[in-house]
Amino acid sequence: MTDNEDRANDEAADPVVGLLLAAGGGRRLGGRPKALLEHRGQPLVEHAVAALRAAGCARVHVVLGARADDVRARAALDGCVLVDNPEWEQGMGSSLRAGLASLAGTRSGTRAGAALVSLVDQPGIGAPAMARVRSGYRDERSLVSAAYAGVRGHPVLLGAAHWAGVAATATGDRGARAYLREHEAEIALVECGDVARPYDIDTEADLVHLEP
């Protein structure tokens, strides 16, 4: 069997690929990149990758930005596709565009049916919530989002049919927000409030959520 045939079989068996946005520089955290903050004895980026894999994503793409070389050196990210975002200072939208481009094949040569998008600074959202959202995948037109008491949050599953539209509207720190708002009626909400806590690690005060 050729490499291309192997790849095609992998994609058919695993249409949903994890996409972890981990490029932030932690401006309100004194310039400490969020990917390298410690949680349960490992960098947040490792914790998030492990959660995506436990949720059923055999393939994971990780978008890096701030101190990307340090993240590569200090975090165990074997088997992940690492995507550099040189425009990370422009906000999360640039990382989402870079990640979707890698999934579409312009960087890695692979294709997926959907991306399960997760944020590195939300360690309270683990594998159970990710798995619930991932299970909502039907085809490339799927749009699925976690909800907390009925309010849309992360993770979000973006079917490949939506990637171009998401990328066109992902600017600043809005990510997919504008696109999802325009397509609200198409989104399948999956309640995750019983299995996850959707806090962000944005400021020094939020560090209380990180466990030794």
CA gyration radius, whole angstroms: 16 Å
- Topology, number of strands: 9
Q: Spans of 5+ residues with little confidence (pLDDT < 50)?
A: 1-12
- Average residue-wise pLDDT: 91
Structural class: alpha/beta
Number of helices: 7
Oligomer: single chain
Domain MobA-like NTP transferase: 18-184
Pfam families: NTP_transf_3
Protein name: Nucleotidyltransferase family protein
Organism: Streptomyces olivaceus
SSE blueprint and pairings:
Blueprint: H1 3-13, E1 16-22, E2 38-39, E3 42-43, H2 44-54, E4 60-64, H3 68-74, E5 81-84, H4 92-104, E6 114-119, H5 127-134, E7 143-148, E8 151-159, H6 163-169, H7 177-182, E9 188-191
Parallel strand pairs: 1-4, 1-6, 4-5, 7-9
Antiparallel strand pairs: 2-3, 6-8, 7-8
Helix pairs in contact: 2-5, 4-6
Task: Kindly describe this structure.
With 212 residues, the protein is of the alpha/beta class. Helix content is 30%, strand content 21%. The protein has helices at 3-13, 44-54, 68-74, 92-104, 127-134, 163-169, 177-182, and strands at 16-22, 38-39, 42-43, 60-64, 81-84, 114-119, 143-148, 151-159, 188-191. The strands form 2 sheets. A 7-stranded mixed sheet has the order 5-4-1-6-8-7-9, with helices on both faces. β2 and β3 (42-43) form a beta hairpin. α2 (44-54) crosses α5 and α4 (92-104) runs antiparallel to α6 (163-169). The radius of gyration is 16 Å and the shape is globular.
